[in-house]
Protein 1
Amino acid sequence: MTTTVTIANQKGGVGKTTTVVNLAHALALMGKEILVIDLDPQGQAATFLGMEQSAGAFYLLSTCIDPAANPLMVLRQQTRSSGRERLYLIPGNPLTNMAQTMLNASNAPVSVIRRILLPFISNGKPDYVLIDTAPSVGGIQERAMWAADLLIVPTLPDSSSLEGVRYIVEVVTELKKKDWGGKLLGILPTQYEERTRESRASIDDLKKTFRGLVLPPISDRTILRDARSRGQTIFEYDSESQSAKEYMTLAELVRKETYRGR
Ligand SMILES: Nc1ncnc2c1ncn2[C@@H]1O[C@H](COP(=O)(O)OP(=O)(O)OP(=O)(O)O)[C@@H](O)[C@H]1O
Ligand SMILES: [Mg+2]
């Protein structure tokens, strides 16, 4: 079975896209086949991977709103090779906004993205679909979260971010009421500065509130920005770095999760 992993937080700049591309490459290096779907109109997943943005996500969503469409064909048509073994991307661009308007206007159910992915999920290839989302709470985010078997919520380790995480955990509670069969894998502190008191205190706060749901943090490292600006993952830029090890640890946690089915 394919495992769908959605990365979401309505707050901007918390490391969602950084996590998507590096987790994707880590899993690919473990021998898994990965499809990243960029559902953020900023289209950054492509940029971070050194690729061109395109209207792939727009075509996928706008065509497949129609229950008579053949999602498998559209998924295949819009999938681009990233030039890395086993790592593929359906890119996004600003047109994704229009797909969101169409989803909302047609009252597409919360399950619509999951339904579009079903031919993949039941096929078991790719092994993982990773979904990047926009920093907002439009109709795509909720549907992308519902599509997830595993949900990861990156957050900055500062006091002002705690509210944002609380909010998204409330959304998860709402999704469960709508028969969501996925699981919140955890809250991922990013840009963690071990030496600053605020970073440490905020991890303690997160642990007090969310207990076992707090994942091992990703440290604040300029190297991640440098890799991004070159269109490389951390495994290409410096595979021996601490950041590479931290993202590999996250990939191992994802891999250990067995598919829970629904
Ligand atoms: N652990 C880290 N250490 C240092 N810089 C980081 C780290 N994680 C992300 N960044 C940088 O922070 C910025 C924001 O990261 P990113 O684009 O991944 O966040 P995002 O949540 O996807 O943003 P948006 O909400 O706009 O989509 C980028 O410049 C990225 O290179
Ligand atoms: Mg992003």
Note: Residues 3-254 form a domain with the Rossmann fold fold (CATH 3.40.50.300).
Protein 2
Amino acid sequence: MIPNYDIPNDLIPSDPRFGCGPTLIPNETVQKLVDHGPHLLGTSHRSKAVKDLVKEIQQGLVNYFNLPSGYEVVLGNGGATFLFDAIGLGLVQKKSTHFTCGEFSNKWFKSHKLIPWIEAEEVAAEYGTGITAENRSDADMICVTLNETSTGVMVDSLPDVDEETILAVDATSGGGQVPCDLSKVDLFFFAPQKVFASEGGTFVAIMSPKAQKRALEINDSDRYIPGIMNWKTAMDNAEKNQTYNTPCISALFYLNEQIKRMNAVGYEGVIAEGNKRADFIYQWATNHPKLSCYISDQKYRSNAVATIDVDESFDVTPFIKELEQRQLVYGIGSYRKLGRNQFRIALFQAISFDDIVKLTKIIDLALK
Ligand SMILES: Cc1ncc(COP(=O)(O)O)c(C=O)c1O
């Protein structure tokens, strides 16, 4: 497809996975799971081994995010999309306001919009631009997406909300790498298939005392909430270091290993690593005659997901296909529904900086 396109051996990345979700799970983590397998996989999720694992995850996140006392780390199945509905059904009293700038933030809005007994309002920015959320006196939940995976926009700041309002942050994409003061946030949730280098299907919801109170108030009301979305059960189980129902134990294992790795560097350190990657990749794109940064406003450019537009004279589709066929690079196409002539590259902590540099050189060779 690309004639005479040779990639020197020293440019071959140590790992081909640059996708934004799911992301790579380090090989050594998978090997460690194999070694631990007989003592963990296929044991009861109410057993000591699994409860210890959940406890380590909870404690690891408390340390990593320096969570104020009273915050609860709740785990369950279903991923982030499941939580969109569970939040609308179980944590919004009357109205949620959603600040949206891409597919995922819009999807969260739509899931609340469909619930007949609450109101949902969307404040939307055009794709490719960012949005700064504000408090709204008529909403009891403000919904913010920390990092919009579809476009590569991260939030620049979070609003102060009043005592009656829940600030909810979907941190699935950049959570753990995009700066965020969790003491300001009431519900910080994610599925761990990105910065947390695990698999999809699990959710983590970090709840402030205010969010827990809201969950109990709605639980005690006569509102119907499907059993699987019962926040009280999920919170009660979290206190016992258990997931809501039978978990995917391997995903918990991978998540815990990545939390340990991230704790070794510290949140500030991981943010700094992300910024270094971001500075490098945006500089590269800015200086290249055939590339440009899709997000023009620098303050919204993500340190976790980089979106780089490519001049129309070069069609990225056959190039990306060829790299995948050669098993050299996976997952650098633009978000499906965005459909741009674009590279979207994950800058997640588990992806090596050297590999990101190599990837840019591989692209340079093709663009010559
Ligand atoms: C910001 C954001 N929110 C939500 C989701 C949906 O997550 P899940 O597939 O776990 O439901 C994604 C998935 O990529 C995401 O990037």
Note: The chain has ten helices and twelve strands.
Protein 3
Amino acid sequence: MPELPEVESLRRYLLREGIIGKTFELVSLERKPPGRNGSGAIACAKQTVGQTIIGVLRHGKQIALELNDFVLGAHMGMTGQIHIQLNKEPKPRFTRAVLTLSNSTDLILVDPRRWARFQIFDSVSQAFSKLGPDALDDTLTSELFTKRFSNRKSQIKPLLLNQEIVAGIGNIYADESLHRAKISPTRGANTIPMAELRRLHTAIRTTLNHAVKFIENHPDELGRPYIVDAYDERMQLKRKSGGFCPRCEIPLAINQLGGRTTYFCSKCQR
Ligand SMILES: [Zn+2]
């Protein structure tokens, strides 16, 4: 699933492609396939016709296109990607929506699993209103971070995935950050000493910044950021059975926490 680094890389890619100042001229959606949850979640994209893009913003895992009269929010779901390509180029498989821009290019939504969605908001602040502070934003100081976790009894890993507490961390980068900070994913947040919570805050920033840089340095053949691959070098943990802790070299433990597969080291994460 695209998490903060993948969505931030998408934002930077859209800016590089020069979409600011372009106007949506035409929107076409795939026909709803029988028996599938088809175009409903992206149908509101039709309202963008005639609107000019004046900003591309991100908060957590959500992206928002600021338009003349409203904001088009986009959530990439599990497998959504946005590409910019020339009108004349053939559309890739799993193209769900084609939003034609005023410079002979198309902004296209490609999404094999159809969980990505668009939503119309009145303003940027409304688009991001349900989200906690962004995990990479400087306003999320070490002090604010510890405050948001230190009096909660729940296990730390599911709390990290709660976008209302801190926005941008998903399953994979939560595991990476907890491993880096040497904290067990099952620890109750209120049992973790302040110094360790501060270490976790630093580990999250290091992990996310590392991933943003990795994606930037490894574009696909068309210069686009590619989607998260849990097995590439941006990950310290090899997320498969038989993976080892890079510090202790013992097999990683695999657990289900809040319905999400969790990889951790039972020796160095306490
Ligand atoms: Zn270990």
Note: The chain is about 25% helix and 20% strand.
Protein 4
Amino acid sequence: MNTNTMIYHCSENALAEAIAFCQQKNYRRFSLVCDTNTSAALGERIGQLFNAQGWAVNSIILGGKEVIADERTLEETLDRSGNDPGVFLAVGSGTLTDITRYCSHKKETAFISLPTAPSVDGFASSIAPIVIKGYKQSVPCQAPMAIFADLQTLCQSPKPMIAAGFGDMLGKYTALADWRLAHIIMGESFQELIAARMEQALHACVENCDEIHRADAQGIRRLMDGLVESGICMALAGNSRPASGSEHHLSHYWEMLLLQQKRPAVLHGVKVGIGTILMARRWEQLRGLPLFEVKRRLASAHIPDAQTEKEAIAAAFPFNPEAIIAGQSVYLSMSETGFAELKESLLQNWRKITKIAASVPVSERIFTLLQDASAPLSVAEIGLGDQDEKNALRYAHYLRSQFTVSKLGRILNLWE
Ligand SMILES: [Zn+2]
């Protein structure tokens, strides 16, 4: 994604700005993708405004109780957009934007994002998470050429969606800590300027949490700015590190579980919020560990047996163990010498690690921030059980190759 050229505008005048943009570009034909809710919230109005310009708008209103970005929906959208779809308009939040991102990319045309709720940080992304054969996969597509966020629509969006967006933002605390940790311990590339940008956006949201919870224009604008900024930071970093870490891995795990059990989806940011409480607790555990205890634990730490690890992965992810095992190759192929060096690095850098741990608020604080937003606070509130939480804490880190606090804690035998 070229972050220099993507236009982002969030205000009460966003729709007028969108029209001016299309006039300037001389766009006259559009495929508007929405569902019944987002059609009522914004889609119909956009259709009328664009029609009044003499422009052709093909409204693709996706039906059903729950719109999922799966093969059936993608096929339907591709089909209904026809041979000459023009510019795609994504009217909705996460899922509808991803459906449009995918379909516009397939049809080799551009798309404009018109968010209806500040619920997720994926608007500016170029990756579309889509469900193929029942499993979510990340497909490289394209970023929108512009995002026009109508502030009034965002302020009127359902409160749980606003709370979810806020949860997705809080996840940046633990994501950034994981990124710094991986940089110090694994030598992973890290850009302080990008981390600082992400932090600034996160702090702006936390400072305005009351305004966000009340759905005041200023608060909602800060939240939307933060969510878009998050997508830009990921694009600048060339990976998801600035915005996604161990808390997102928990969310991915639960999402997979709900999908497999054919149960209703839970908003991404809701799961991330709960994951952030759990991972903040892990960082608290690390912070409280005295150096002599770290030394003692490292002295008795042994390299995990690769075969046992593979068997654990196969048991936890029976549908696709090969891909997950391949993603863990850095750790599974580690030599005794490599493991000894890793332990030495942990010991030498322990002071820095505790500093990183101190950058994560205590779990109680995350809990309160989410509670004030009326967001779910535990897996029980999203229909999952204790075992689902335990399994996620034990296995979710296998879903990505990233080094995180989850992997660190396993070396120290702090948790399973
Ligand atoms: Zn997220």
Note: Residues 7-157 form a domain with the Rossmann fold fold (CATH 3.40.50.1970).
